């Protein structure tokens, strides 16, 4: 889905840009002319041991800002003179922790962006955030309850604040080259690619797998990390005046 509308994207702020997904969104944004990329995150610029070599040149062009997204003044300073904000903030841990990081962090950012009249806001959500999802029905005592509920609350805030200027991606497991420090670059595509094929391309067998609650959705929702980056950037170029929600099948087309 190539586009010639890159000139519409001039200044983009990526929250959590030094993470696995964030680095690839930074890279995708910098493939377009007339765009500048800034990132706010707690640790600032990623180290060479936390990013794969093929992203090094792109990441060197990002304006890295070290700060806490929960600090309103840090958020507002980072949002100065930007046209678009993208949040790919997320983490795993206790349910309370995940509610805060996967939900509250983006909610606070959406409110600041709205106050500053930023035109569009993008969010990397989860394949389990949809009406009737088993993920959203998990009891509070279950692992991942906070993750899915946090993403859900952030989506609702974004839909209310930016009904005509949102981009929401709903991927499952995101695979591709990932630098895990002392373990080097791990090719997660060796896991994601075959499972995606079995979960989506094998006719009746894929249909049977997809019918399994929760597991079926995950097996059919795995996406390449490069596609996530391109899907977010290209979609947010065109979301002015409308909202966009992309599921895994949509994302894989980029």
Please give a quick description of this structure.
With 254 residues, the chain is of the alpha/beta class. The protein has helices at residues 20-29, 56-59, 72-78, 95-115, 145-161, 189-200, 204-210, 215-219, 225-237, 248-251; strands at 11-15, 36-41, 63-66, 84-87, 120-124, 166-170, 174-175, 177-179, 185-187, 223-224, 244-247. The chain contains 10 helices and 11 strands.
Q: Which structural class best describes the helix and strand composition? A: alpha/beta
SS element count, helices: 10
Number of strands: 11
Helix content: 25-40%
Strand order of the largest sheet: 3-2-1-4-5-6-11
The outline comes out as globular
Amount of beta strand: 15-25%
Radius of gyration: 17 Å
Order of helices and strands: EHEHEHEHEHEEEEHHHEHEH
Alpha carbon gap, first and last residue: 6 Å
Stretches with pLDDT under 50, minimum 5 residues: 1-7
Q: How would you sum up the major sheet?
A: 7 strands, parallel
Mean pLDDT metric: 91
Could you characterize what this model shows?
The protein has 254 residues and is α/β, with parallel strands linked by helices. The protein has helices at residues 20-29, 56-59, 72-78, 95-115, 145-161, 189-200, 204-210, 215-219, 225-237, 248-251, and strands at residues 11-15, 36-41, 63-66, 84-87, 120-124, 166-170, 174-175, 177-179, 185-187, 223-224, 244-247. The radius of gyration is 17 Å and the shape is globular. It starts with 10 loop residues before the first strand and ends with a helix. The relative contact order is 0.15.
């Amino acid at each position: 889905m190539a586009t010639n509308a890159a000139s519409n994207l001039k200044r983009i702020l990526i929250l959590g840009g030094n993470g696995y997904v964030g680095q690839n969104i930074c890279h995708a944004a910098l493939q377009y002319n007339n765009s500048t990329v800034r990132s706010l995150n707690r640790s600032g610029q990623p180290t060479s041991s936390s990013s794969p070599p093929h992203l090094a040149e792109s990441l060197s062009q990002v304006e890295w800002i070290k700060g806490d997204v929960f600090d309103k003044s840090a958020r507002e300073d980072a949002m100065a003179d930007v046209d678009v904000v993208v949040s790919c903030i997320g983490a795993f841990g206790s349910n309370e922790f995940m509610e805060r990081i996967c939900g509250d962090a983006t909610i606070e950012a959406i409110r600041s962006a709205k106050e500053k009249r930023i035109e569009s806001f993008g969010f990397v959500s989860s394949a389990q955030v949809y009406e009737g999802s088993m993920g959203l029905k998990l009891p509070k005592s279950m692992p991942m309850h906070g993750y899915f509920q946090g993403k859900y609350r952030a989506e609702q805030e974004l839909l209310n604040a930016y009904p005509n200027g949102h981009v929401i991606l709903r991927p499952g497991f995101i695979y591709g080259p990932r630098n895990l420090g002392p373990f080097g670059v791990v090719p997660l595509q060796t896991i994601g690619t075959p499972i995606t094929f079995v979960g989506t391309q094998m006719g009746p067998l894929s249909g049977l797998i997809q019918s399994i609650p929760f597991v079926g959705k995950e097996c059919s929702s795995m996406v390449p990390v490069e596609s996530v980056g391109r899907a977010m950037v290209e979609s947010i170029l065109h979301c002015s005046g409308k909202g966009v929600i992309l599921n895994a099948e949509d994302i894989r087309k980029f």
